[in-house]
Amino acid sequence: MKKVKADPKGVLTGSHYLDGDYALAEGALAAGCRFFAGYPITPSTETAERFSERIPSVGGVFIQMEDELASISALIGAVWGGKKVMTVTSGPGFSLMMENIGLACMMETPLVIANVQRGGPSTGLPTLTGQQDMMQARWGSHGDYEIIALSPDSPQECFDLTIEAFNLSETFRVPTFVMTDECVGHMHEKVVIPPADKIELVERKWYKGPKDKYLPYKLDKDQIPFMIKAGDDYRFHTTGLTHDERGYPVINAECQDVCVRHLVDKITTNADKIIRTEEEEIDTAEIIVISYGITSRVTTKAVQQARKAGIKVGTIRLITVWPFPEKRIKELAKKVKAFVVPEINYGQIVLEVERCAGGQAPAILVPHCGGGVHDPDDIFSAIKEAAK
Amino acid sequence: MKEEDHIEEKNPIETLLRMDRIPHIWCPGCGIGIVVTSFAEALRKSEIDLDKVAVVSGIGCTGRVAGYIKLDSFHTTHGRAVPFATGLKLANPELKVIVFSGDGDIAGIGGNHFIHAARRNMDIMVICVNNFNYAMTGGQVAATTPTGANASTAPYGNFEYPFSLPYLAEASGATYVARWTALHLRRVTKSIQEALTKRGFSFIEVITPCVTLYARRNRLGDGLNLLKYYYEKSEIQHGADTRTLDISYQGKLIVGKFVDKEKPTFLDCMNEHLAKKLGDKYQPYGVNNG
Q: Do B83 and A65 lie within an 8 Å CB cutoff?
């Protein structure tokens, strides 16, 4: 992957007091995003507002589309027109985007979607927090595919992880999600934006070979095909149908096997390179609390209480949620007494922990249906119970 | 015959088709191929830089057009060709972006996108092949099925009112609107040529027989019969008021060029407005490219 420095035009270097939503927009601009198509939805709208205010003096396009179906479709079109692109949404809009998230996966189109999660289902709790779209992020569109999802726990991370999301998305030519939530989105904190020459970006994997030899879906050594953009004399074709390396539809089981296997393998075989977690006091832990996003900040208090009570607790914060750190959880399941998984939903990531633990250690859910964060005492109680 | 005597005659539009994908999937007697021919012919005559032309299709029989045109071509999802084209155009304003899709795609599932792209005067061309039904899935009733016509999901006849697409396009803001039948080969070609030179949202509807489903279910004869029938039933009325263009079952078809006007495009408006508001701070974008 070719690395380049950020274009200073989009980088608002300095120390700022920003909310998570604004930090998402600044992260996108720093990452070289010059096209944003969106539709207003609480609690994510501020990101679109920020981008629409900033982009005219940076150089690029903001367009408010007629709905989220249109937003994501325009994003995919804009990528094939040569731009780096992003949109932001929340639950109901994320649901509408699912169809074309599948198209982006199938066409191997790099793009970034931030989901500032709120309580669902349906219209649910527009103004209050939730972490209920975590499984939807992984499985929401039909068919088999893999995506990447990151989960920031602060406005600073909204900035940092948006840049990382762009880099991962370009590296693997896959839609990448920044799965934040209303709390982080509306939380104001210090956000430090480094100088442009300190921000490293992954350049799109442009094809540079002879034009008549170009095949849109021919895999390179790293499994990732080269990209081009429309208007450069390649006269290429791409489709949402199952296709061969020419991008031509081939409707049979053999081609489907190659096509789909690739969409899955390019992420699963690179999972170690993608996954980032933050671990604390794991080596001596009897109980491990696994959390992500805003919940990891609430967890800190509960873990302090537990340690004071003499319980050996370790923590894992999932910075990457998808692909899931399967290997690490499998390994730890042999050593620990239990995993405790607090999340603002009725049990999503806990299922993945349970699957990976494979019966060697229980995965105990601390649920919260949304609308607020956990009471740290509830997490503490679950840790105490697990340690018995 | 000796091998050197063998002269391979090529159709001049072959260079614009993905010949490695021919034969196509359309039924004998279907009109889509004729519209593709008109399109290719228009491109050939227009002498525009073909490297800067992109075709976007949605889903359905006409949705397959993108797969046969040898230009940068995108076969997207059902109804989403127009917003995809919007993104493509805005990302690379020097492109001429043409949406080539069917009535179900453009006016049914994609209706909302269609009216908004027209409202914004997005600089794209939409060619809509209207065969009065959802053909790829077996001839279901559509937003364009004339009242009274049979369809597989209207087995007792369609009792809904259909859309008049030119009226919809004009009312939404399109700057070029025309309607022809597939047999108006040269007129379709000319309309596409005109639209290729225009900046703004242009819309061309082409009425086309669906032999296998619509014609058979309504006992309207074979493809050639129906092509001729549509042709004979049409009355050219350039500049006709688009409010008068309703299509009734097997009734008169008013065809022609109804709208041809100039209006600043989305990017024109964006550049002009933001430059006025922000002065030197504004970074003009894709100026003079629609």
A: yes
Considering Cα of A44, then A49, then A54, then A59, what sign does the dihedral take? positive
In a domain, A54, yes or no: yes
A65 CB within 8 Å of a chain B CB: yes
pLDDT digits 0-9 by tens, A234-273: 999 999 999 999 999 999 999 999 999 999 999 999 999 9
The CA-to-CA distance between both ends of chain A, in Å, stands at: 49
Judge whether A251 lies within some domain: no
Range of the domain at A286: 277-387
User: Do A193 and A58 share a structural domain?
Assistant: yes
Low-confidence ranges of chain A (pLDDT < 50): none
Question: What are the distances in angstroms from CA A250 to CA A169, A217, A265, B21, B27?
Answer: 26, 13, 20, 11, 19
- B80/A100 Cβ within 8 A: yes
Q: Do A74 and B86 touch (CB under 8 A)?
A: yes
Main-chain phi, psi angles of A259, to 5 degrees: -65, -50
Q: Is A237 within 8 Å of B66 when comparing Cβ atoms?
A: yes
Q: Do A70 and B80 touch (CB under 8 A)?
A: yes
H or E segment and range at residue B18: none
Which residue among A58, A60, A99 sits closest to B77, beta carbon to beta carbon?
Answer: A99
What is the domain-level CATH number for residue A8? 3.40.50.970
CA distance B131 to A358: 56
Partners of residue B17 on adjacent β-strands: B69
Q: Mind listing the pLDDT tens digit for each residue in A98-111?
A: 999 999 999 999 99
Mean pLDDT (chain A, rounded): 98
Please tell me the predicted confidence (pLDDT) of residue B10. Answer: 84
Last residue of a domain, one of A158, A173, A202: A202
Q: Answer whether B184's CB lies under 8 Å from B275's CB.
A: no
Domain spans, chain B: 11-262
Alpha carbon of B27: minimum distance to chain A alpha carbons (Å) = 18
Name the CATH superfamily housing domain B11-262: Thiamin diphosphate (ThDP)-binding fold, Pyr/PP domains (3.40.50.970)
ipTM: 0.97
pLDDT (0 to 100) of residue B8: 74
Interface touch A71/B83, C-beta < 8 Å: yes
Distance from the Cα of B124 to chain A's closest Cα (Å) equals 13
How many angstroms separate the CA of residue A31 from the nearest CA in chain B? 16
Last residue of a domain, one of A154, A187, A202: A202
Residue from A111, A129, A119 nearest A185 by CA: A129
Query: What's this model's pTM, rounded to 2 decimal places?
Result: 0.97
What DSSP line would sit under A44-109, residue for residue? THHHHHHHHHHHHHHS-EEEE-SSHHHHHHHHHHHHHTT--EEEEE-HHHHHHHHHHHHHHHHTT-
What secondary structure does DSSP assign to A257-276, as a single string? Answer: HHHHHHHHHHHHTTHHHH--
Q: Please give the DSSP secondary-structure letter assigned to residue A316.
A: E
CA B135 – CA B62 distance, rounded (Å): 9
Neighbours of B159 (CB within 10 A): 9
Which three-class secondary structure state does DSSP give residue A112? Answer: strand
Angle, CA A114 vertex, CA A110 and CA A117 arms, to 5°: 145
> Which residue ranges in chain B fall short of pLDDT 50?
none
Q: How many domains does chain A fold into?
A: 2
Q: Give the other-Cβ count within 10 Å of B156's Cβ.
A: 6
Contact list in B for residue A249 (CB cut-off 8 A) is 67, 75
Residue B112: its chain A contacts at CB < 8 A?
66-67, 70
Identify the contact set of chain B against chain A, taking CB-CB distances under 8 A: 18, 20-21, 51-52, 54, 56, 66-67, 70-77, 79-80, 83-92, 94-95, 112-113, 116, 266, 270, 274, 278, 281-283, 285
> How far is the C-alpha of A261 from the C-alpha of A65, rounded, in Å?
34
